[in-house]
Amino acid sequence: MESASSSSSLDSEGNQHRHDCGRVWNGMSMDARYIPALRRLVPPDHRAVGCVRCMISRGRKRTPQVCVLVEHMQEHCVLICAEEGALPNATLKSDSRFPINVDFRIDIEPVSTVGGSRVITANLSYKRKKLIFEADYDDTADRFVKEISKAFENSKYRNTPASDYLWVEVYKNNSKFFLDVNPEDEDDLGEENKASRECMVKCLMQEREDEFTVLNEFRIFTGTWNVNGMAPPESLSEWLASSAPNEPPDVYAIGFQELDLSKEAFVFADSPREKEWLLKVKESLHPKGRYKEIKTVRLIGMMLSVFVEEKHAPFVANVDCNSLGTGILGMMGNKGGVGVRLDLHSTSICFVNCHLAAHAEERERRNQDFNDIRNKLSFNQMRPAKSVSEHDQIYWMGDMNYRLQDTTKQHVEQACANNDFSSLWERDQLRDQQAKRIIFIGFEEGPLNFKPTYKYDVGTNQWDTSEKARVPAYCDRVLWRGNNIRQLCYKSHDNFVISDHKPVLAEFSSGIRVVDAVKRKEIYQELMKQLDKEENDFMPQVTVDEHYLNFGRVHFYERVQRSFKITNTGPVIVRFLFKEQPKGRRYAKDWLKADPHNGTLKKGESCDITLEILVDPASASKLNMGEEKMSEVLVLHLVDGKDIFISVDMEYQHSCFGCSLEALVRHMTPIGLLPQETLIALETDPVKNAELGVPFETPTELWIIMDALQRKGLSGGNIFGKSGSQVEIQTVREALDTKRPDGQLDVSVHAVAECLLLFLSALREPVIPYCFFKKCLDSSVTYTQAKSVIQELPKVHRDTFRYLVLFLQELLQKSKRLEVNILATIFSAVMIRPPQDGQMTPSKERMRSVFLYHFLVNHCEV
Amino acid sequence: MSNRAQGGPGNGATAGKICQFKLVLLGESAVGKSSLVLRFVKGQFHEYQESTIGAAFLTQTVCLDDTTVKFEIWDTAGQERYHSLAPMYYRGAQAAIVVYDLTNPDTFSRAKTWVKELQRQASPNIVIALAGNKADLASKRAVETAEAQAYADENQLLFMETSAKTATNVNDIFLAIAKKLPKNDAANQQGQRLNVAQSAESNQSGGCCK
């Protein structure tokens, strides 16, 4: 994960590729205008399957975006991208990813028609992330959605197990400078930022490694011997403990070939010879050192053991080993290689022991064996897996089987007698092939100032006296690759006579990077401080010109606006939004609205945010009664940054809109002229605190509205067909709240009609009280049942209901343009309202409309 | 087997993991919450620090021996009218510093009610520190150290008298919190499980060392 994300953010080479050759298919599910942008977005080993512009809704937010379907190794992922710049030069930035695997769901809805155009809708989800995709319905969009759905189906039936979708990481936008993040994704983002911080620190620390590491000289002893399947001799000390008496090697890597030639060794993993030899090796290591076996790996006859001095053991990490047979099918391991890798302090080291193909004429085969081992031997416990070449230092030993060519046994014997080894090197196949850059590229080897180590008569120091009289050869070799390696010694030991090979050793003084813990901590802290500073300095910053907005006196249904200015004064793009209030409440009380309630500001850019108060029928009663505070604190949140509080205050003028019928029929004084406490008392106990001993049948306010409607004439067409203007509605409200109008209201009939509906829907308790709501729906089947419900209503509600029904009947008679079912729907909606927590459904709406309908078409018995 | 997890000595970077914690500062207005944060994060002090109208957000990292603690600091407005918004900030927080002004006994009483609210409403394993700020104004002291210490002991709070002006104990109090916070995954998961009712916001910063 770390490596994947680091490569996407840091590997500039990788980015370069991405610009060159993202594979884009100009398929039918692709909006072709985005092809240039996709080439920049999609890396070469991925494929863009489809791309459409769409609307994406997350929670309450709905934004235009571009949706892209990408594929990699038969896995798919949906990317939601932001589009920057204008087509065709637009850039796509992926701000969320929906991998199509077991956690993915898609639900395609039937094509719908919205405002004359056809829209295709799909619900997508990935784990907890959900979104709604909407696009104009055309062939491209249709095919695109089908492609997603197909990819999802295929994902369920794939033969290979699903990957962890690391390939999607390249689309992660780690940079904090592009704040294309959605608030719904914030939990994801937290992790992303953290991951990127950890990853960034790791990279920065690696860059500065030189500052907190020092090169320490370590003695590394390597030895190789083809033992011809023999049991070990009495001691190996002459070979293994041949270093200076007071300088025990720090590390040993001992390789054997033909350790076990028995048939069992081919068949069974276990070999008794391994134990014998290993024990002998341990006994024969330098007597001044105490060694810990780090790892032993064996493939049939090839064995490699690595030891370190005990004091170094705590600094050895990430040990892994593997083997590779180069025999038939790469399985028969009589030839091949074994390797051990480890980190010693901060230097990675790989040891390889190999046995390459025999016989003088098999040079090509040896070359191939070598290259197979170099290319295919890998250490798979490492994440990611490491190959041999990915190490700071490589020590490669073994029976390479390269021969001396174009020479004779006599010539070799002659040269050795004269200590003229250099004349032999020229004829050495290995050196020849290395010089031709076929094998061991980048490796070094010390001078072979010793006799060829093959082939001896067993038990002697005589070269092959058999009939074959093979030409002696330097079969057994040690080469190395890496910096700061100095060979101290490279030689063979003639005194071992059990095999047809002589053992070879090579000792090195190698520079190992050792961490200075104190220095490292200093640099680490310094880096952290620097990253903190960057993070804090690049925090989004804004100023607002007002923290307090006082709306003064506000009346029922009066639209009042105030605005403030928000300016991006920081160094980055700012995304702002109004945060939800505690306990999951909307960002403000129902009567308050911010526009825009989210947005983006470029550096130095300003925008005006308008706050609007509108006390509608739903809030009127609570504010009348002082049950809801007339203030609010809005939380303006900057994504990835701070919150700013914006306080809103108003003084709500209580009104007859929002009172109860019980209170209204028991007072004479206009409601607006009563002190609020009197109103609250009246509402709390209408009988006890009544102004009137004998209540009116119906509220005076309602009577005034009806009277005004009668005077203006009910015959002039659909009086509910238009809404009144703000001013007109305020005129009516003012009249109802402050004086008893005796003359005509100077407003249109539509305004009065609207006020009637507002009045009814603002009533603290609807004409059909909340507790009768259910009964009312249940009784909507017949007129008789409906009538019986009305009989049960409290008197003032019953009277008001009848009064309204009579009015509506008259209205229907006078206005030929009004249809009875429309009128029933309009009035049932305000007279028959569900309790606070009640959900409305289309069928409930129909039922309440039918309930009222009965009364409108039947003669009402008053 | 001597194979260890990666991140050992071999890879050149530090072995330390970064644990991220949400920390909230609470307390009466003008006790010095913003000044403490400013001193801790930027090493600065302003004699006339503007009143915070909102919740400032800053990050700061503290390096311990084996781990690195990254604080996401929410510095809240102290004015009473914003009290109802405080849960947005202490909800999901793993640490809180409740600040009072040791020259003003009312702010100490207010601090106690904040502590009570946190004990009732915040995560049950929240680490709370009590900071008696303005320790440089010793001549005007109105809350005795012993009294505050006794209260802190009773309620298992970390306690220090601090001065944002002179920097006394400022780093120390954050460091003490960093040390006390649980760094292992198990402890954090438990913390999350106990707070299932919390919204996504707590998840955002709730996990440690993922």
UniProtKB/TrEMBL annotation, chain A:
Q: Name one GO biological process term.
A: phosphatidylinositol dephosphorylation
Coiled coil feature spans: none
Q: Which GO terms describe its cellular component?
A: early endosome membrane; phagocytic vesicle membrane
Domain called Rho-GAP: residue spans: 690-862
| Pfam families named among the record's database cross-references | Exo_endo_phos2, INPP5B_PH, OCRL-like_ASH, RhoGAP
Compartment(s) of residence: Cytoplasmic vesicle, Phagosome membrane; Early endosome membrane
Molecular function (GO) terms for this protein are:
inositol phosphate phosphatase activity; phosphatidylinositol-4,5-bisphosphate 5-phosphatase activity
Q: Low complexity composition bias: which ranges?
A: 1-12
Q: Which SMART domains match?
A: IPPc (SM00128), RhoGAP (SM00324)
Q: Which UniProt keywords apply?
A: Cytoplasmic vesicle, Endosome, Hydrolase, Lipid metabolism, Membrane
Q: Where is this region: Disordered?
A: 1-22
Q: Which InterPro entries does the entry mention?
A: Endo/exonu/phosph_ase_sf, Ig-like_fold, INPP5B_PH_dom, IP5, IPPc, OCRL-1_2_ASH, OCRL1/INPP5B_INPP5c, Rho_GTPase_activation_prot
Its family remark reads: Belongs to the inositol 1,4,5-trisphosphate 5-phosphatase type II family.
Instruction: State what protein this is by name.
Output: Type II inositol 1,4,5-trisphosphate 5-phosphatase
Organism equals Galendromus occidentalis (western predatory mite)
UniProtKB/TrEMBL annotation, chain B:
> Which interval of the chain is the signal sequence?
none
Q: What top-level class of enzyme does the UniProt entry assign?
A: hydrolase
The molecular function terms in GO held by this entry are: G protein activity; GTP binding
- Could you tell me the keywords of this UniProt record? Endosome, GTP-binding, Hydrolase, Lipoprotein, Nucleotide-binding, Prenylation, Protein transport, Transport
Identify the domain of life.
Answer: Eukaryota
Q: Which InterPro entries match?
A: P-loop_NTPase (IPR027417), Small_GTP-bd (IPR005225), Small_GTPase (IPR001806)
**Where does it localize?**
Early endosome
Give the Pfam families listed for this entry.
Answer: Ras
Q: Could you give a single Gene Ontology term from the biological process aspect? A: protein transport
Q: Catalytic activity annotated for this protein?
A: GTP + H2O = GDP + phosphate + H(+)
What cellular-component terms does GO give this entry? early endosome
Q: Which SMART domains match?
A: RAB, RAN, RAS, RHO
The keyword Protein transport is assigned to this record? yes
Chief location bin: other
- UniProt entry tagged with the keyword Protein transport: yes
Under which EC number(s) is this enzyme classified?
3.6.5.2
Protein family (similarity comment): Belongs to the small GTPase superfamily. Rab family.
Record-given protein name: small monomeric GTPase
Species the sequence originates in:
Galendromus occidentalis
Q: Lineage of the source organism?
A: Eukaryota, Metazoa, Ecdysozoa, Arthropoda, Chelicerata
Protein's gene: LOC100909352
